[in-house]
Amino acid sequence: LVNNAGQGRVSTFAETTDEAWSEELQLKFFSVIHPVRAFLPQLESRADAAIVCVNSLLASQPEPHMVATSAARAGVKNLVRSMAFEFAPKGVRVNGILIGLVESGQWRRRFEARE
């Protein structure tokens, strides 16, 4: 199972509304939680099951102009570690990868917004 959903929200702490915080946390956490819940029974029945969660370097290297995304990504990093410990005895491997910048439309919009 590969979880790879997300976006980057450009905003400082002062600019981030409660609604924006909720949207960011909802997207980042539940894009992992819902598929894992849905497929966990099948994963536990396999000898070689794995869950890979694509995350961001923002989880370990927060940016002040992306405060909500950085905080949510850090939470996902710890969610992945927690699932790894919980699911290991059941034979399900859980790993996260932290990707850096990928040139894309989202990347261009993010840096245009900073200017």
Automatic annotation (TrEMBL):
The species this protein was found in: Pseudomonas aeruginosa
InterPro entries from the UniProt entry: NAD(P)-bd_dom_sf, SDR, SDR_fam
| Identification of the protein by name | SDR family NAD(P)-dependent oxidoreductase
Q: One short Pfam family name for this protein?
A: adh_short
The similarity annotation says: Belongs to the short-chain dehydrogenases/reductases (SDR) family.
